[in-house]
Amino acid sequence: MDIVVGMAVPPVDGAVVKPVMALRESRLNWKGRLVEKLRKIATQAIFPDARGEWYFPARRASMSLLGDIRPDIIVSSHEPATTLELAINLKRRYRDIPWIADLGDPVLADYTPRRWRRRALRLERRVMELADGVTVTAPGTRDLLLERHGAAGLAPNRVQILTQGFEDDAPPPISSAAGFFDTLRLELLYTGSFYQFRRPDVLLDAVAQTPGVRLNIASSNIPEWLRPRLEAQPERFRMLGFLPHRNAVALQRQADVLVNIANDNPCQVPGKIYEYLGSGRPIIHVGNVVESDVSAALIRGRRRGWVCGNDREAMAGLLEALAERKRAGRLDSIDLDLDDRVVAEFGWSQVARHMAAMMERLVATGERAPPEQGQGC
């Protein structure tokens, strides 16, 4: 079966490098800052952001590619939303080829800039009208899409939940991280980005006031408002800069405790929560504690760590207790279930099997979305 896949982000080289290189903080030089400014300017004018520049060359290439190989199925991976626009263009010309929109999250999200909200909603509706199948990462996202688009969109059974996952075939080498963490203090690790809808204040305050605790941060986009605060207490906060994916995973598997900062929207699940689940290390989920928060439910339901709301004293108390257990050599005796089998369903091999089954069904049965109605976006 031939497949055309629109990749959201190119894969990262996972080669293991020496710790001094892999863990070095990365800050932009003047050229990098100039490029960043130009990218911000482009983001104001191009939908959905600067990555939209890819649309026209990608449209020409994708049309040529489909004409040459005539695939059995098209899969477009969002984000960026540009991949969805490209797939819509292909679907209108090749109605007989099934299209799966690997949506993940809604196109219109809480963080969508106001100037693009109407366009994002219109694009999301066209995806629901034209795609033969849609995949999302959480039940709340599926329910939101069905509520928004109702009869105009796909039938509920055509919207499948495919979570993010973790590498479960061959664990990456971990020798590059050996000796990196202090054996005498509680070493926390956060890998990921900082956004307006992901608030670290409670965590940072608790770390700052709790002796014997250090928060390691592997992120390529630490905001300027946050950097001075972290630099003011280097004994409590260690910025690692950008890490290749395999290095980040290696650190996850050796840290004492991993940190997940909840999104404001409880339906959104950061992809790294599944990497954390596969690491075999305890997790602290900071922020949303409501039942509808998927990350909190995963950690609670599988006894992989602790869920702590935006309460500074509660967070500091938890860190103090864990630091004491670390000093006493009893951290790994905590009553959690860190067995791999508890989270095996989230391994990429298992998620891939579900995706393959969905593709095979669409190709074999010839199920298609209803004929296109109305105007395009």
From TrEMBL:
Pfam families, alphabetized: Glyco_trans_1_4 (PF13692), Glyco_transf_4 (PF13439)
GO molecular function, one term: glycosyltransferase activity
Glycosyltransferase subfamily 4-like N-terminal domain sequence ranges: 38-161
UniProt xrefs under InterPro entries: Glyco_trans_4-like_N
Identification of the protein by name: Glycosyltransferase subfamily 4-like N-terminal domain-containing protein
